[in-house]
Amino acid sequence: MLQAKLTGQLTLNFLRRIHHGASCPCLYSLSDYCTKKKEGTRTKHGLRSDSSVSRRAFHSQGVFGPSVSPRETQHHGRRSFSLSAATIVNSAPAPVKPYLQLMRLDKPIGTWLLYLPCTWSIALAADPGCLPDLGMLTLFGAGAVLMRGAGCTINDMWDKDFDKKVSRTATRPIASGAVSRMQALVFLGGQLSLGLGVLLCLNYYSIALGAASLSLVVTYPLMKRITYWPQLVLGLTFNWGTLLGWSAVQGSCDWSVCLPLYFSGVMWTLIYDTIYAHQDKEDDVKVGVKSTALRFQEQTKPWLSGFTVAMMSGLVVAGINAEQTLPYYAVLSTVAIHLSHQIYTLDINKPEDCWKKFVSNRNLGLLLFLGIIAGNLWKGRRETLLQNEEGTQISEIINT
Length: 400
What we know:
Layout: H1 2-19, H2 30-38, E1 42-43, E2 46-47, H3 52-60, E3 71-72, E4 79-80, H4 85-90, H5 97-102, H6 109-125, H7 134-158, H8 160-164, H9 173-176, H10 181-199, H11 204-211, H12 214-226, H13 230-238, H14 241-250, H15 255-277, H16 281-287, H17 292-296, H18 300-321, H19 326-345, H20 351-359, H21 361-399
Antiparallel strand pairs: 1-2, 3-4
């Protein structure tokens, strides 16, 4: 009888706990288990047991970021997972994760800004009426990931002492001690070796041209120590693909197209990276590094407007020399409006607004890429019509 009474009491208590939302490890849903595992809430003997009320409170406090955790949707409380570069990197094995962070794979905006000028050049170099070479776009995409990673590794090796003094950069792998300088050097060698493998897939002219950019990649991180124009050097480095993309497709550079395009890319970098630098201007002053944000200060918007005019002028010249057509120039007007809106609405004293404007340049670059493709397809159509007209005229002459 005592045993039966105890059993009944335990059963009643268990049912009460379920009624009030308590749970044990075996009753966790899969999403709760993944969340707990992600946040390191394992105890020595297994998962901790919390009530569903406690879990909801934990989520409502914003402990889990929207890009790395399950979140409630507005429809029936269902949970969904968001997939992002940061999520993938944060989910990587512990020995690998610091190296992925060193490459900035969790922040792909830099890779986009390095890659997009390459796509412009590849698209401009395509034959009239043809889409850009998909193989080249893929090859340059791989190269952009590797070379951006190599550049970030070099930057962090140079800036280890500076990064420790800035809250935003103190957690970077080298500054935090997760990766030593020797380990970073070996990793850099691996990235450059793979980058060389990509480069060797191109023609000899492009191999020599690509190798010439290494001096810029290595020296750029030092520029912030000696000049207020490190963004200019970054522009010279990041837009080298405007030269390389054309030569990879055509065998050599057509300088009447490539130089104006390169110039426009440099101006574009001065725009977006000056905006980016305004996020860090207070920390830059503290640690003693320079930037165009500190050079321009309250005169930033007039400077950015001047860079915009120069950028658009270069794109017009490149388009004329490449015999681009109406869709290209229509997109250029949209690009000009996009940049004007960025500059007009920019608040240089709000880091979150600077970041928002900075990342919007990926869409601007993609828009220009699509405009070049549309213009090239239109060019092919126009040439076909001209050939048909010439053929008709020749036929009429023969018949007469």
